[in-house]
Amino acid sequence: MMVAKSKAPRTRMVPNWNYDHHQQPSSSMNARTVPSHFFKIILPSTMQQMKLSIPPKFVIDFGDEISTLATLTVSCSGTWKVGLLKAEKNIWFCDGLEDFFEHHSISAGHLLVFKYEGHSNFHVIIFDKTATEIKYPSSKNIILEELEDTVVLDDSNMSRHDMQPSDTSSKERERAIQAAKLSMPKSRSFMTVLQPYNIRFQYVYVPKGFANKHVAWNQFVNLQTCGEKQWRVRCYCHTSTSSAMRLGMGWAAFSRDNYLEEGDVCVFEMIKASPTVLMRVSIFRAHDYVVN
Questions:
Q1: 200 or 33: whose pLDDT is higher?
Q2: Distance (Å, rounded) from C-alpha 256 to C-alpha 99?
Q3: In degrees, to the nearest 5, what angle opens at C-alpha 54 toward C-alphas 50 and 60?
Q4: Residue 29 pLDDT exceeds 90
Q5: In this structure, are residues 247 and 204 in contact, taking their beta carbons and an 8 Å threshold?
Q6: How large is the C-alpha radius of gyration of the chain?
Q7: Which residues have CB under 8 Å from 46's CB, separation 6+?
Q8: Do you know which InterPro entries this protein is assigned to (predicted)?
């Protein structure tokens, strides 16, 4: 009599998310049974609005413990601080997202996989349009970029970024700069000459010396021109290794409402430090200094 051979039990293969990314779950995540991954496909609208929504189901599970600032970690590419915008039951990545996308050459069609590791920390894996994981740029590039961004000229309180030439007539720009210098307070102020990236990417740098004395990182400040209206703008760091501060979320509205253009000069003056920082912004428009 033939005896049927028993079949060996099949082994189920489970993907190991830590296989090559040197990321171990934090102690706060060890006991989690709720799935902590999600993915996002980058759409054209994402690139236009420069906001990336977090899936509603993930927000329900983890939204209460997520702060207004997230840390994104990418293999071999360092860590990035990105602001989170919360509205009702929705959360978006916003401030700093432009820098993150630019550094990793992310565009419409890319796919990002997020692994939540607790305390507003996310490990990110990036796939290109061929569904293949990208070759990550070195984090050394971030450090070099930040060193350039934080150089400040003592006499004018301007970052070196703001001294780069633009398409605006150099004579018009120089006249606007001279006019701004004459009216600029000697203390608690800084000056910015608007460059193309300020208009396109919607942020301005805050000189390191001014930021260290007057502004906390990831803090909202109010900007006011000659009228009563105020604009709420977030001040944040470029990356977690950065000392360079930027005015980001809210700057686009301020720029649009005040019709700012490349070559215009803005003088920021500290008016009030608490409870919310208030800065007066004097605008010197390059086209006002055209000599016929």
A1: 200
A2: 21
A3: 155
A4: no
A5: yes
A6: 24
A7: 40, 52, 108
A8: B3_DNA-bd, DNA-bd_pseudobarrel_sf, Plant_B3_domain
Task: Give the phi and the psi of residue 286 in degrees, each rounded to 5.
Answer: -60, -40
H or E element in which residue 42 lies:
none
Q: What is the pLDDT of residues 38-94, one digit of tens each?
A: 999 999 999 888 899 999 999 999 998 998 888 899 987 778 888 888 888 899 998
Q: Residue 173 corresponds to which tokens in the numbers above?
A: 């720009």
Strand pairing report for 277-284 and 152-153: unpaired
Confidence of residue 35 (pLDDT cuts 50, 70, 90): low
CATH node for 150-289: 2.40.330.10
Question: What residue segments make up the domains of the chain, in order of their start?
Answer: 27-127, 150-289
**Structurally, what CATH architecture does the domain formed by 27-127 represent?**
Beta Barrel (2.40)
**CA separation, residue 140 to residues 77, 81, 136, 151, 286 (Å):** 8, 16, 12, 18, 37
Query: What pLDDT was estimated at residue 213?
Result: 85
Q: Which SS3 state, helix, strand or coil, does residue 174 take?
A: helix
Q: Are 158 and 190 spatial neighbours (Cβ–Cβ below 8 Å)?
A: yes
Tens-place pLDDT, residues 224-246: 998 889 999 988 876 554 556 88
Q: What is the mean pLDDT of residues 171-175?
A: 77
- Please report which helix (H) or strand (E) contains residue 121, including its range: strand 121-127
**Alpha-carbon separation of residue 281 from 74, 138, 204, 230 (angstroms):** 37, 37, 13, 10
